[in-house]
Amino acid sequence: MTPLRPGDPVMLISPDRKVRIVFLEPGRQVETHHGVIAHDDLIGHPAGRVITTHKGYPYLVLEPSTADLIQHLKRRTQIIFPKDAAYILLRLNVHAGKRVIEAGTGSGGLTLALARAVQPTGRVYTYEERAEHQALARRNLTILGLDAYVTWHVRDIGEGFLEQEVDALFLDVRTPWEYMPQVKAALKLGGFFGALVPTTNQVSQLIDALYTHDFVNVTVEELLLRAYKPVAARLRPEDRMIAHTGYLIFARRGDETARAWAQPHLRPVAARRQAEEEGIPHE
Amino acid sequence: MTPLRPGDPVMLISPDRKVRIVFLEPGRQVETHHGVIAHDDLIGHPAGRVITTHKGYPYLVLEPSTADLIQHLKRRTQIIFPKDAAYILLRLNVHAGKRVIEAGTGSGGLTLALARAVQPTGRVYTYEERAEHQALARRNLTILGLDAYVTWHVRDIGEGFLEQEVDALFLDVRTPWEYMPQVKAALKLGGFFGALVPTTNQVSQLIDALYTHDFVNVTVEELLLRAYKPVAARLRPEDRMIAHTGYLIFARRGDETARAWAQPHLRPVAARRQAEEEGIPHE
Amino acid sequence: MTPLRPGDPVMLISPDRKVRIVFLEPGRQVETHHGVIAHDDLIGHPAGRVITTHKGYPYLVLEPSTADLIQHLKRRTQIIFPKDAAYILLRLNVHAGKRVIEAGTGSGGLTLALARAVQPTGRVYTYEERAEHQALARRNLTILGLDAYVTWHVRDIGEGFLEQEVDALFLDVRTPWEYMPQVKAALKLGGFFGALVPTTNQVSQLIDALYTHDFVNVTVEELLLRAYKPVAARLRPEDRMIAHTGYLIFARRGDETARAWAQPHLRPVAARRQAEEEGIPHE
Amino acid sequence: MTPLRPGDPVMLISPDRKVRIVFLEPGRQVETHHGVIAHDDLIGHPAGRVITTHKGYPYLVLEPSTADLIQHLKRRTQIIFPKDAAYILLRLNVHAGKRVIEAGTGSGGLTLALARAVQPTGRVYTYEERAEHQALARRNLTILGLDAYVTWHVRDIGEGFLEQEVDALFLDVRTPWEYMPQVKAALKLGGFFGALVPTTNQVSQLIDALYTHDFVNVTVEELLLRAYKPVAARLRPEDRMIAHTGYLIFARRGDETARAWAQPHLRPVAARRQAEEEGIPHE
Hints:
The first copy, chain A, has 2 domains: 9-64, Vcp-like ATPase, Chain A, domain 2, CATH 3.10.330; 67-276, Vaccinia Virus protein VP39 (Rossmann fold, 3-Layer(aba) Sandwich), CATH 3.40.50.150.
C-alpha cells in the first residue's frame, strides 16, 4: 500500500465527474458542492478508492498525472495540450540532467512538464514578459515542489537569453523567427530547437528563418488526438475532437558547414517540386 | 562548447540522408559508403557540424535524441513510434524516481524511453518471453548506459509479475485482457495502467476486462502524426502518412468502492446511447 | 443574368449569419428578426446579391446547393453529412438513369441527394418504418420538385424490398447485417451495396455477413472533413471538428463463383495478419 | 438479370487483384497474363460473377463505377482522388441540367465525373492548354459515351472563358488567383466557385483574391480518407494512408453589395483573432 502524505497533490472527482486538485495538509478540509471532505481522511490512505463527504456523496481519489496537472491547475492563458507537451519532451530529448530554456512561460503547463522531466539534476530556464503570468506559474510549480528546478526570468527575449550552451530551447511566442540570433547565442551547437505556432503563415516564416540561421533537420508536424467512447459493445470515436492546437517545428542548431551540407538536400527537393507542379496540376 | 566524449552515441547523416548511429571509442573508425571517419576526429569536438570522410564526403554529426535512438537502434520486432512512446510516458506519469513495469520488452524501444525517464532514481521492470529479443534490447540499453535502471525478466506474465506496488504498468501484448489479476497484484492502488493494441476487437475486449477488474477513468485514444514538407514557399503536408500504429488505452487501478462509483457513470452513458440509437439512424 | 423564379428555393443569410431557406411565391413575404422581405423583391432578380429588409437590414441571397438543403431543411432525425452523402453517390455509381433503393428514409437528406442525382430518368425507392419521418421527408422533396423521382415505402425491410434488379442499394439502419437475403433479392448481380454504421462492432458484424452472402470487393472507410478559418494572413484549421459520423462500408453483389474467387484473397490476408501478430507485438 | 451489352465498360480483376478495364466488342478478346477471355463470353451475361480464361484462371467481372474509371483509365497527369471529386460535385451543386466550366482538363478524371453528373441535359466546358492531355481525356470520355456532354477547349484561360452565366466553375490550376476577372465574366451571379490547390501559400493567395473580387461564403476544407482492413475479427485501419491531396476552396460569386455585407463578418473575425493572439500565446 502506498499511502498519501501531507503535501501530495490529490485529484478529487465528484459523482458528476467534476475534477478538482487539492494539496494535502493535516487539519484542513475540502468544501465541495456535495459536502465536506477532511484531508485527514485522505492522508495515510492510498489513492484509487472512493471517499464520501459528510453528506454521503462519493468522490473518487486519484493521484494526478503531469497531464492532469497541466489541464486542471489555475491558469490565465491557453494551456499546452498534453499530446503536444509529451511529444516536445521526447523530440527535444529532455530528461534528467538536461538544461532547457523555454519562452514564454504562459501559465506554466510546459514548464511543469519540463521541470518534472529534468529533475533532480537538470534545470529549466523560463522567460516571460508579463510578470503576473509567471507569478501564477511559479506558485503552481512551488506547491508541486518543482520550484527548485526552475529559474524564472521576467524579460523580453529580444534582449537575449541569460544562459549559454543549453541542451534544448523551446519557443511558444508569436514571432519566433525574430529571435534566431538570440537562440543561437544560448543553444549549444547541435542542440535541440522547438517551437509551436498556430498558423501556416507563421510556419513558413519560421522555416525561412531557421534555414537562414544554419539550422538543420527542420521538421514540421502536427499531432491529432482522437478519443473513443470507452464502451466495449458500441466502440466508436467521440463525436467531436480538437482539430488544431498548433504546428510543431523542430530543428537542430548547426554551423556554417551544416548549412552547406543542407544545400544539396534542399536543391533536389525544390527541383522535384518544380517538376511536379509544372507537369501535373496537383497531387 | 559542449564536446563529444568517448562512449557518447553519435548520429551520422550521409550526403544522401542515410542515418547511422555509432558509439565513440578512441582509436576506432567508421567505415561508410563514402569513405572512413575516425572517431578521434569527433571526440573533443561539438556536434551540429559536418565532418568529411577521407574521400571528402560530408557527414552531418548530431547527438541522437531518444526518438532517434528508438528509430535507428538494431531491432527484431516492430518498434513503438515516438509519438506513442512520448504520450505513454506522460499519461503514465513516468518521471525520475518512478517504478514501472513493462511487458513485452520487444526490441526495447519503450524500455529505452522509460529508462531515460525514470533515471537516476527510479526503475523499469521489463518482461519478455522470447529471450533473444530481450537480449538485443539489453545490449542496446547497455551501450547507452541505461542498463543500471532496468530489471530484465524472461518470463511468461501469465505466471505473475515479480514486483508489487509499482507506480505504473504498461502492456504491449496480444491479449492484455487475460492478465488483469496479475496487473492488479503488481500495480499499486490508484496506479497508472496503459496498453497498446492494434485492432478494435482487442480494444473492446480490454475495456470489458478493465471494468470487470475495478479499473476507473478508462480512456481509449489514438494519435495521428502528420508531417509537412518543410519548404517555406510551398508548405504542404507530406503525401503519405502512417495511418495507424495502435489504440492507446489508459486506466487507473481502483478498488471495489471505485467500481461502485463508476456505475452511475456507465449507466447514463448506456442510457444515452440507447436513446440515440433508437431515435436516430446514425450520428 | 439568371433570375430567380417562383418555386425556386432561396437561402437567406442574415447579418449575423443565420441561414434560412424559403421557396419563392409571388405575393408572399418572409418575416425575419430584422424586418420583412417581399418574395416579389427576389423574383426576377439574380441571387448573389444583398436584399434589405423594410428596416434596412442586409440579407445575402443565395441559391442553396444540395449540401445546403441537406443541412437546413426541417428534420426530425440526425442528418447525413454532406461529405458522406457525396462519397456515397460516387461509390454507388449513382447518376442520371440509375435505380436505387435506400433504407431508412430518415429525414430524407440522402433521399434528396439520390433523387437529384438519378433524375430525370432514374428512380429512388426509399423505405422507412416510421410513417411520420417519411412524411416529413416527402414534404421536403415535394417542394423541391423531386417527388416525381421517388417511390415512398412505409415498410419493415425485414419483409423484403418490393423492387428487383436495382443498380444500387444503401442501408442506413441499425442492424444492416440482418437484411442480407433481402438485399440479394433486390440488388442486381454485380450491383453496388453501401452502408453507414457508427460503431466498430457493427462494422465487424456487417463484414462477416457480407462475406457469408457472396459479396465481394468489401471496403471499410471513414471520411474526415477538416475546415480552415478562411483568413489569408492567419491560415489555420478551425479549433474543433466533427471527429466521427460513421464508417462507410461498400461492396459488390457477387454469386457463388465470386465467393470462391474471394477465398484466396482472404486466405493470404489472414495468413499475413497471423504472421504479423505472432512475430511482432504491434505495428 | 441485367446482361452486359456491347460498348459497356467492364472491370476485370485478376486472381492477384490486378484491375483492368475493357469495353465490350463482339468478336474481340482480352489477352491477360493468365490466358485469354473472349468478349462474347461476357456479352449477354451479368456482371458480379467469375469468368475463367482459356487456361482456367478466374477473373472477377464487375461494372466499373465512376470512381473506378477515374482511377483506372489511361492518364498522363495526376488524377483527382474520388473523395475530392465526389465532394466537389456536391459542393458545386452539379447535377443533371447544370452548365459547368472546368480548367484544366488534365487527364479528364473530374471531367468524367462532371459529365456523368450533368447528363443528359447539362454540359461541361473544359479548358486545357496542353492539347495532347486533352486529347487523351477526350478519347477516354468518348468510349464511355460522354463526349456528347462536353465542350473541349484547348486555350489559355488567361484569355478568358468562352461561356457566360455558367452555374459552376472549378479551377485546378497552379495560380487560380490570377483568373478572378475571367471567372467573374463566365460565372453567373450567385454561382458556385471551387478550386483545389496543394499548398497553404496558394490557399492564402486565393482567399485574398476571392475577397477582393466580391466572392462570399468562402470556405477552405480538406478531406482525409482512412481505409480499414476489412477483416471482421481484426478490424483496424490500414497502416498507411494518403495524407494530402489538396485544399478545397469553395465560394459563391457575389456583387459589390455582397462584398459590403461580408465586411462586418470579416471584421469581428479579425478582431477576435487579434484578441486571441494578444492575450494568449497559442491555442
